[in-house]
Amino acid sequence: MITYTDLNALLKSIDTPFGTFRAAQEGRYPENPAYWLQFVGKPEAMVTAAQEWRGRKWRISAHMTDREIVATAFQAVLSFMEHEVRESFLFHMKPIFGPHIPLDALLEAASAKPDARE
Fold first, then answer.
1. Domain ranges across the chain
2. Using CA atoms, how far apart are residues 107 and 81, in angstroms rounded to an integer?
3. Which candidate, 114, 54, 116, places its Cα nearest to that of 84?
4. CB atoms inside a 10 Å sphere around CB 101
């Protein structure tokens, strides 16, 4: 079973030019600890921001292997970088694949023309 100290040591062993990781322990069930990790992007690695941004939180079970945790950290970086690409990919100066488009706007667009091949 991994400890919070072990998790932090594992995350400190990961090097990426895009940012760093932080972790926290959930306190709901001390007899069965769980943690989360979060990728924190460096401002110079991001297209749309001059300050650090944090990605989503990824839940880590105390029963995960080191390999599973490192793979989750890798996925956190990929997800974070995809978010940046979606924000900066413009078509007619609009981020058509942007991650901040509201759900109701996506539903409206899907209803207007459900299949572009028609």
1. 4-112
2. 25
3. 54
4. 13
Regarding pTM above 0.90, the answer is no
Length of the chain: 118
Burial class (CB in 10 A: 0-12, 13-18, 19+), 73: buried
pLDDT tens track for 52-84: 788 999 999 999 999 999 999 999 999 999 988
| Sheet with 34-41, edge to edge strand ranges | 19-26, 34-41, 53-61
Q: Are 62 and 37 in contact (CB under 8 A)?
A: no
* Angstrom distance (rounded) from CA 20 to CA 64: 20
